[in-house]
Each structure stands twice: as C-alpha cells, then as structure tokens.
Specification:
The protein has helices at residues 3-11, 27-35, 76-93, 117-132, 153-158, 210-222, 246-256; strands at 16-19, 52-57, 99-101, 139-141, 167-172, 179-184, 227-231, 259-264, 271-275, 278-282, 296-302, 308-314, 319-323. The chain is an alpha/beta fold. The longest helix has 18 residues, at 76-93.
C-alpha cells in the first residue's frame, strides 16, 4: 500500500478535527471513575461501542520517599490501586485489549550504588510491579528514564513485565473486522546511541537511535492496520521533555499514513498537539498531587471510523479526535 493510498484509507473523509477535552481532567473525570468505570460514553452523538479499547497509566514514580514539590511518591501506591480496580471493573463490563504503562514506574534516587542504590531501586520496582501484576489485562511497558537511571534495561525487564526495548504488536478489534497495530518506542539512548543505565546519561539527552528509526519505518511499511504509537518522552514540542531527534521520527509516522495517534508520558501535565494530522497526547502523571483523589489514568477508545476518544479519570483530561467532514 503506498503512502497516499494508506492515508486515504485511514483518514479518507477529511482532515483530522481536534475536539478539546470535555472537562480538563477534574470533576467530570472523577465522576466517571467512580460511576462509569466499565462503560463507554457517548460523546457528541458518536456510537457508544468502540472497535477496541485500551487503558493507560504513566509516571507512577513509586519510591519509599518523602514528597518533593508536587510529587508524592508513596501516594502512588493507593492511586495505582484505585486505577487497577477501575480498569479491572471496566474489563469485565467491556473488553480491554491491554494496559499501556508509559514509563517511570519508579523514581530514581541518589543513594550511591556501592551503598545499596541498585538494590533500593530494584526493591521499589518489585513493590510497584506486585500491584501492577493484579491487572486483569495484558500489559505493555515503555522504558522511562527513571526506570533505568540506575538499573540497566535488562535488569528492569528481569523484575517487571517489560518485554523489549522497542517492538510492535497487533490486537484484533473486539467489534467489527480489522485490528489495531501498536508500536512501542524507546528513546532512552544518549546522543551517541548508548542505552541508558547505571547513571550514564542526563535526562534531557533522549534520542531514538538510527537502527530504531530504520526498524520503525520498516514496521509501519509492513502493516496495513491503523496504528497507535506509545512512547515515554515526547515526540512533539521543543522543550527538555522532547526527544532530540523527534522530527525524524515524526516524518516516518507522517509518511506512513497509518498513525491514528501518539500517546506519551514524561511531561507529567495534560498536553495535546496535532502535527500534520496526527494527535500527540501527553497523559497526566500518577505521582503528581497528594492523596488518592489525585489519581490519574485513561481509557482510550478506537472507533470504526478511526476516531479516538480518551476518557480521563481523576486528574487525566478527556479528549476526542474525529475526522472532519468535507
């Protein structure tokens, strides 16, 4: 399938129309978390039943540590427990294909490695992983910079459900025909292509190496399915939380004509931009804010017309992305 044809097949009715969140992540979202955890909402007249659904969590930053600024590390445990309860309830009511955990499961500490810093962070990872393991869905992890500040990628994978540095997979639509293609990216590499680990990097030096970009291009060329991309660091924006060679990656996504959206973490705040018809969504961090009332997670729906709905819970915003009619 050539680029023009694939773009027409996925976005045929016109350019993507961005409809901002119904509620900026607070009152309405919290009500949804308490009363509608298993239901698909009907927004702006759209049919209630999606082709496929997935859940998202990001930037848990668990550590047995006192708060720093607005980051409440210990409170991430009850926040995650609340999210898992709602996600599991939702999965019973209507199929959930998987849960995407978008990086930074743990917070990195400054304890010297020779004084137990490695064991400390492995302990944090084992603790949060024991909670995430109670999810009744398949789960996929994205590497975050805090995950592998001290640990290597292999060590992180050994003690968690992480599968690989970068990879892709497919999930059949639960309603209708077709499938969703999902790409998991890893930008935890320094500018010279060295993988993060053992405190060998600065967090602003995030890069997708050339071999991963080549893989991404080939992967998107090989699929005929609408695609969602998962990443920790941002592919949009121009600040410190953005991948340094993001324009090269975005060009590949744009040329494929197959990407419905990019779901990201790292920035901690609700954020949204649309570049060349592709929405780039930053999900709200779990660690931000005190108490379980500041939990944050999302349920993402992909509909048969390739529109996206993001149902925000807690402090996560709602969003809708729909094709504009001509």
């Amino acid at each position: 399938m050539d680029t023009a044809t694939s773009r027409r097949s996925l976005l045929a009715a016109g350019s993507l129309a961005l409809m901002p969140g119904l509620v900026p992540g607070l009152t309405g979202s919290r009500a949804a978390a308490d009363t509608l955890a298993g239901r698909s909402l009907t927004w702006r007249g759209r049919a209630a039943e999606p082709a496929i659904r997935l859940a998202t969590l990001t930037d848990i930053h668990y550590a047995d540590a006192d708060p720093r600024g607005n980051r409440y590390y210990r409170d991430s445990i009850p926040k995650v427990a609340k999210a898992i309860g709602a996600i599991n309830e939702s999965a019973v009511a209507s199929p959930l294909a998987f849960t995407a955990v978008l990086g930074d499961l743990i917070d990195s500490r400054d304890t010297p490695i020779e004084e137990g810093g490695l064991e400390q962070e492995i302990g944090y990872l084992k603790t949060i992983e024991s909670h995430l393991a109670t999810l009744n869905t398949d789960r996929h992890y994205v590497f975050g910079n805090h995950c592998i500040h001290t640990l290597t990628k292999d060590e992180f994978a050994e003690h968690s459900a992480a599968r690989a540095s970068f990879y892709s997979f497919d999930r059949p639509f639960t309603r209708g025909t077709g499938s969703l293609h999902v790409v998991v990216l890893d930008a935890c590499f320094t500018s010279d292509g060295t993988p993060y680990g053992r405190r060998n990097f600065h967090w602003t030096d995030a890069n997708i190496p050339d071999h991963e970009l080549r893989w991404l291009k080939a992967d998107l060329e090989a699929t005929n399915s609408p695609t969602i991309v998962l990443t920790h660091q941002r592919l949009d924006g121009e600040g410190n939380t953005t991948i340094r060679n993001a324009p090269a990656a975005r060009e590949i996504l744009q040329e494929s004509g197959k990407v419905l959206g990019v779901i990201q973490g790292h920035h901690h705040e609700n954020s949204l931009s649309v570049i060349e018809g592709i929405p780039y969504l930053v999900m709200r961090a779990v660690v931000e804010g005190p108490g379980v009332e500041n939990h944050a997670f999302g349920l993402v729906e992909v509909h048969a017309d390739h529109s996206l709905l993001v149902h925000g819970f807690g402090t996560q915003a709602n969003h809708e992305f729909a094709r504009a009619s001509r």
